[in-house]
Amino acid sequence: MVIYNIDRYIHKSSKQQAQDQLFTEKPIVSIIVPGKNEGRHFYKLTRTLTEQTYSNYELIVVDDGSDDNSALIGRDLERRGYIDKFFRNEIRGGKASGANLALRYARGKFIVHLDADTSLNNDALEKILTPFYYDYRVGGVGGNVKVRNRQESLATALQSIEYLKTITIGRVVTSYLGIYRIISGAYGAFRREALDRVEGYDIGPGLDGDITVKIRKIGYRIWFEPTAVGQTHAPTTFYK
């Protein structure tokens, strides 16, 4: 954590200027949420977004062939104005396919990819967008994903420690060294022009790593922002 503290001290004034520029420009941000059988998380997702300090966003949800009540919940939230665009694939195409569908209709200068069960700290959008203004070479920013239910069981406590080791500490170091390679699909942001240049997500299992590598290959920097915090629900047992 020493590297992070030094970096934060050196660049504090520059980051404040970047944050000021973000709020001066106030670009629209497209939050895309592809997934299957995630309807039970939609209410919490929309609630956490209404509490954000940065409010100029649109929410696009893609129901990827769910067999639960996701479509019913999603369409209700769309009708009430909490979801801006809701799409349903009758046949499952995979998360990358769902993300590409959302991108097709997204209007934002920046794209934030979330899992439906990720809840955000109230300044999370602001924090994950600021690095794009700090350095215009930044094409993608990874958020800091933590375990929301870490006190629920031994399994969640151990997973919380693992998240701290592999995500918070590991990615701070690799970002500082310029070798950070995987932005988690649970919570990450991208410059829209970078996604357009690599023609979106590749269909297949390597969603998170593939898109990050493609963006790096065309010359963009990949950044990890430890102050942009999202919470996810971890399994409560060691067994499925």
What does this structure look like?
This protein is 44% helix and 22% strand. It starts with a helix and ends in an 8-residue tail after the last strand. It has an eight-stranded mixed sheet, with helices on both faces. The longest helix has 24 residues, at 154-177. With 240 residues, it is an alpha/beta fold. It has a single domain, classed as Alpha-Beta Complex (Spore Coat Polysaccharide Biosynthesis Protein SpsA, Chain A), CATH 3.90.550.10. Helix 2 (12-25) crosses helix 6. The relative contact order is 0.17. Strand 2, helix 4 (70-79) and strand 3 form a beta-alpha-beta unit. The chain is globular and about 45 Å long. The protein contains nine helices and eight strands. The protein has helices at residues 2-10, 12-25, 42-50, 70-79, 95-105, 124-134, 154-177, 192-197, 207-217, and strands at 29-35, 57-64, 85-89, 110-114, 119-120, 138-147, 187-191, 221-232.
